[in-house]
Every structure is written in C-alpha cells, then in structure tokens.
Amino acid sequence: MTGPHAPDASPEADEAARLEAGRLLFAGPCDFMLGVTALDVLPPPDRPEIAFAGRSNVGKSSLINALTGRKSLARASNEPGRTRELNFFDLGGRMRIVDLPGYGFAKAPKPVVERWTALTQDYLRGRVNLKRVLLLIDARHGIKPVDEGVMKALDMAAVIYQIVLTKADKLKPAEAEARQAETLKRVERRPAAHPFVAMTSSAKQDGIAELRAELAALALETRP
C-alpha cells in the first residue's frame, strides 16, 4: 500500500535501510587528502568530519581500514606515536575522516609530542563542521586515567564524542558485554558523551556495519 494511509516501515526494515546506507557510504571512494601540521592549512569546513582519537596502538588505523574496507588506507604500526599529523581522508565528497595523533606513550621527543598535542586540541576546539569524535578504548583494559583527561577536555570544549571499544574479539562474550555496560556507566553523566558505547573488532568485523550506519546518518545531516 502507498499513500498517506500506508503502514509505517517495520523496525527491521528501518535497520536494514540504515545498514545499507552505511555500506554504500563506505563502499564508495575514499582517498587520502593531506596530512596537516598547522591549522592554517586545514581543508575548508564544507562537509561533515568525524575524528578518530585514542591512545597509541589502540587500533585507530585498523578501525579506519575496517570501516572503509581497505587494507592500508590508514597505515597501522607497532610503533606507538607513528601518526604525527592530522590525516584527512575524503569519503566520496560526503564526509571526511580525520585520523588524530595517538596520545599516551608515544616514542617521540617531548617538544614534538607537545606540538602535535596542541595542534589536536586547537582542531577539536575550533572545527565547526566536526560532527563527532570517536574515542577509541581498548576493550581489554577499559578507560584509563589518560582517557579520562581527554574526555574532560572534550566535555569542556562541548565536542560530542562516542566511546568505541576496540579489540572486542580478545574478550569472551560475557566479558565484552560487562565491559560495554561498565563503560557506559562511566560516561553516562558526562555532558558531551554520546549515550551509546560501540563494541568493535576490526579483525572479526564485529560492530563495523553498525558503526558505518551511525556515521552515515551524520553524513546526511545538513552541511555547514
């Protein structure tokens, strides 16, 4: 039946449509644009951006590669602190992915760490088209004090962020469920935290389709 008296789509159909929108967005072109080391060379704020943040070696590159279906779009490395720029990727002209430098135990001279930390903070505070920060947390270890500091800074800057638990395949199902519930409880009172904690495994593709769907919904929002 069509027309004004047609029945509403079922929840199952709605979810299938969301997942398909996510698949289509990330199945399209995705190209590295540039690495930014200074705010004056940022791309124009003419489309939504999603930033990926997390401790060094938390799995940012692996998650970006899993979402985009590429093997080496974002380079993974066992060397903490390899990403020392804001790396921008273009998703078919509809959205940008921004890979932020990892924080924590980066093997780099202190002045270098301070410089890229300041650059990241300035980007997060002033980017008008930044729709969300995905804050990656290793599911095996949960939120650490250094993560708490980043969350506090994002709360103060009023930047919406979502916790994404990575490497969930390293936990038993019951452990993963408990970690997700514990993490949600720790962020539920934070003013800028998104009220859903994603559970993912880049190796097993767990949670990837659902995260694609969430990000595709943000891409559909009005551009700045």
UniProtKB/TrEMBL annotation:
A biological process term (GO) from this entry: division septum assembly
Highest taxon of the lineage: Bacteria
The entry's keywords: Cell cycle, Cell division, GTP-binding, Magnesium, Metal-binding, Nucleotide-binding, Septation
Gene Ontology cellular component terms for the protein in this record: cytosol
Domain EngB-type G: 46-221
Pfam families assigned to the protein according to its UniProt record, in alphabetical order: MMR_HSR1
Cofactor(s) required for function per UniProt: Mg(2+)
Molecular function GO terms recorded: GTP binding; metal ion binding
InterPro entries linked to this entry: G_ENGB_dom, GTP-bd, GTP-bd_ribosome_bio_YsxC, P-loop_NTPase
NCBIfam families, alphabetized: GTPase_YsxC (TIGR03598)
Function noted in UniProt: Necessary for normal cell division and for the maintenance of normal septation.
Database matches in PANTHER family: ENGB-TYPE G DOMAIN-CONTAINING PROTEIN, MSS1/TRME-RELATED GTP-BINDING PROTEIN
Protein name in UniProt: Probable GTP-binding protein EngB
Originating organism: Alkalicaulis satelles
Lineage of the organism: Bacteria, Pseudomonadati, Pseudomonadota, Alphaproteobacteria, Maricaulales
Gene expressing this chain: engB
